[in-house]
Structure formats: structure tokens, C-alpha cells
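Regression test case RT-17, inverse folding.

Input:
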């Protein structure tokens, strides 16, 4: 699939008949000025400029899922090797990724669908928009699980009850309300309201919805204290193995090495990964192959993508 040609289109503003005196002339002038500014901004976009490739740090679950889903990791012998170009700019969390792409007209990046905002533009991938409906029906294939993990069955009563809440109808409603795909068959929450402290930590992609879940849980169990530590998926899993976290968060599947250390994973939601560009970029969609070629360094300028 070829991306729409990266050219700006100038709008023609028509003037209509006779203007009525004193009726919104200032507002009309302001709107015309705003439209002209937008057109000037778009016309400044030059597809011959280098692509600013932005990726996440090693250990990020979002990066791990992204490179797997787009075929950016390749198997070499017994090892899987991340083929992301060395020219990529590395960001260490979701908010920095969004800010970086929003400030650079020629940037491309990727974020959790649930974290997407209007500061950037999400591209269609293989003709499908990044929406909950398209993830559910399988037309948007760039999705991954949000996992929580404990070392074996949790012994911390607050951790156990909090997990029960997350998986209940109430918890899954919080997940759905925050833009993630929930389990429609969740059971009612059997409240036990234990006292004590629980530490949850890991993925910066899971962290925003986990914060909402903690807020909601504290309303039904004010006896509980839950500390949230945000890092990345790998840190979440290793810290749970070591006992620093009662519950770890990962925005990817658990690795065999993590499971062999005794981690037990539970999917709490499904999330899409949105491929994002600056709002001034006239592109609307890319193919999976084009994304791979960009991130492996085969394409270095936007006009190469459009050829």
C-alpha cells in the first residue's frame, strides 16, 4: 500500500454576496486568519526532510510488543534481535514520546492507544484505524495484552483483594472507561476490605489505568494503602521476582525466563499500539511494511515512504 502523497493542499476560500453590516465581521476575519495560518503551516511541510524516528527504551513492554508486531525483531540463531535503527531517538516513557512527536513535524513514534491524545495524529495501519472496535473485530492488528504478575499466588491480602477488584465488573468498567478493552464477562466484586499495604510497579503504559484502578479501589476499601511505582515492564517483572513489588505490571506477554522464576501472569485488559506522527504531517496511513522499513532505517526521508 502506498501512503497518500505528502503534499499540502491549499484551500480556496469563497466570498459570498453582500455582507450584512455589524454581523460577525470580526469573528469571520479571525476565522479567515486562523485558516490561512493553518494553510501556511501545512505548506511548509517538506517531505524531503529526514524522518525523526522515535522509539522507547530497552525493557519497555510497548517497544517489545511494537517490534514483534511489526517484524522489527529478527531471529538470529536462538536469539531474537531488535533491528531498530541506531538513528532512533530513545524516550523513556509514554508522556515523553507524545511530547517529542508533538514538537517535531517530521517525527514518528508509537504509544498505547489508551494514552493517545490530540497533541499527535494516529495513523491508520493497513487501512484500519486504531480504535477499540477495530481491535475487537481484528481489523486493527497492532494490539497487545496488559498483564499483571505475582510470584505464585499472592500472599498479601490487600494484593489479592485488589486483583479481585481489577478483574471484577467494577474494575473492568474502570478499564473500559479509560479507553482500554475490558472483559465483558467479568464477575461481581466480592468485597473483603483487608487492611495493609501493597506495592504495584512496572510498565509506564499500564501505569495510567492502574492509577485509575487504585483510585476506584480505595473508595470501596479505604483500609488499603497501595503504592504505585512506574518504570518499565522488565523492571516490573524482575522486581516482582525479587519481592520488591507485590504486583508487577507488563504491557507485553511474559518471557519464558520470567515464568520459570515463578511469575504468574493475569491479563487485565487489551490495548492497541497507535503509530503516531506530528499533526502537521499530511500522511493518514501506512502499511505494516512501511512502518518496518522506517524503523529498521531502510527509509530515511518521508518522500522515500511515498514512492
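Golden output:
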Amino acid at each position: 500500500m502506498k501512503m497518500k502523497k505528502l503534499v499540502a493542499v491549499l484551500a480556496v476560500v469563497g466570498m459570498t454576496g453582500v455582507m450584512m453590516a455589524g454581523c460577525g465581521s470580526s469573528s469571520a476575519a479571525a476565522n479567515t486568519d486562523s485558516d490561512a495560518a493553518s494553510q501556511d503551516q501545512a505548506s511548509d511541510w517538506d517531505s524531503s526532510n529526514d524522518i525523526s524516528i522515535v522509539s522507547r527504551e530497552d525493557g519497555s513492554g510497548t517497544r517489545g510488543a511494537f517490534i514483534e508486531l511489526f517484524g522489527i525483531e529478527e531471529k538470529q540463531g536462538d536469539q531474537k534481535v531488535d533491528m531498530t535503527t541506531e538513528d532512533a531517538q530513545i524516550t523513556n516513557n509514554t508522556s515523553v514520546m507524545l511530547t517529542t512527536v508533538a514538537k517535531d513535524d517530521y517525527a514518528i513514534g508509537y504509544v498505547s492507544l489508551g494514552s493517545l491524545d490530540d497533541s499527535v495524529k494516529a495513523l491508520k495501519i493497513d487501512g484500519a484505524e486504531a480504535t477499540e472496535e477495530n481491535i475487537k473485530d481484528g481489523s486493527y492488528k497492532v494490539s497487545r495484552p496488559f498483564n499483571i504478575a505475582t510470584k505464585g499466588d499472592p500472599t498479601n491480602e490487600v494484593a489479592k483483594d485488589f486483583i479481585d477488584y481489577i478483574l471484577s465488573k467494577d474494575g473492568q468498567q474502570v478499564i473500559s472507561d479509560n479507553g482500554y478493552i475490558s472483559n465483558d464477562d467479568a464477575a461481581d466484586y466480592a468485597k473483603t476490605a483487608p487492611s495493609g499495604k501493597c506495592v504495584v510497579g512496572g510498565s509506564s503504559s499500564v501505569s495510567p489505568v492502574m492509577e485509575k484502578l487504585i483510585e476506584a479501589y480505595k473508595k470501596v476499601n479505604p483500609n488499603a494503602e497501595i503504592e504505585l511505582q512506574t518504570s518499565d515492564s522488565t523492571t516490573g517483572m524482575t522486581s516482582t521476582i525479587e519481592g520488591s513489588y507485590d504486583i508487577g505490571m507488563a504491557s507485553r506477554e511474559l518471557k519464558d525466563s520470567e515464568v520459570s522464576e515463578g511469575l504468574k501472569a493475569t491479563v487485565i485488559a487489551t490495548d492497541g499500539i497507535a503509530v503516531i506522527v506530528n499533526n502537521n504531517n499530511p500522511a493518514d496511513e501506512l502499511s505494516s511494511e512501511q512502518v518496518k522499513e522506517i524503523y529498521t532505517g531502510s527509509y530515511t526521508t518521508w518522500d522515500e515512504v511515498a514512492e
